[in-house]
Amino acid sequence: MNVTAIIIAAVVIAATGIIVGIGLGLFGEKFKVEVDEKEAAVREALPGNNCGGCGYPGCDGLAKAIAEGKAPANACPVGGAPVGEKIAAIMGVEAGSSEKMVAFVKCKGTCDKTKVKYTYHGIEDCKKAAVVPGGGPKACTYGCMGFGSCVKACKFDAIHVIDGIAVVDKEKCVACGKCVAACPQKLIDLVPYKAEHLVQCNSHDKGKDVKAKCDVGCIGCTLCTKQCEFDAIHMDNNVAVIDYEKCTNCGKCAEKCPVKIIQ
Question: pTM for the complete prediction?
Fold first, then answer.
C-alpha cells in the first residue's frame, strides 16, 4: 500500500471540502433572503389553521400582509380578538374592534317542510346536483340541497346537515368563509354572532309560488318591515333582509311573521 498516495488523497479531499465550504458560505451570504422579524413574530402568533378565511393564502400570506401594513392586525377570523391584540402589540398599532361573525344558512326547508320533485340518485355533492335538470330534487331551487358540500369544506366541524338542511354550530364556527364559497345556492352568509333575528329563507319567488314549494318560505307579505321602528328590515327581490347594523334585536319582526321564518 502506497502511504504517500493515501496522504495525498486525504489532503486533496480535505482541501476540496474547505474550498466548497468557503464557497457555500460566500454564496449563502450573497444570496441570503432577509427575514422580517416582525413578519416572523406575527406568523408565530397566528393559529396556523391555514384556512384562507382572511382572504390570504394561508397564515404565511397573512403574516406577510400584516407586516407590510396591507392587512389589519385583527384580520385572522380564527384567532379572533385575543390573537388580534397580540399581533397589534407586535406591530405597535391599535388592535381595533373585531366583532365575532358566524356563518348562517338562509333556509328552513327541512324534509317535512319542502316539496320534492323527484328522487335523486347520484353523487351527493351540492355543486354537482345543482347542474342536473331542475337544479336538484327539491321544488325550491333557492333552498339547501342537503348534500353537504359545505360540511366537507369546513375544517372546524361547525356545520352539519340535519333533516335535509345545513345547520351551523355558532360555538364552533370561526367565520373562515369556506362554507360560504362552497355553497352553489349562495345560501350562507356571515352574520354577527350576537344577531338574534335572522331570516331563514332565500327564495325570490312570489308568495303563491313559495307556498306551493315550501311551508316555511318568505311570502313577501312585508308585515315584518312595517313592524320595525329602526328601519332594519327591508324586502329585497321578494325576500326579507335584515340590516344587522341597525337591528336592535327587539323581536317585533319575528312576532309578526306569519310563516315564522325569522328565528
Answer: 0.73
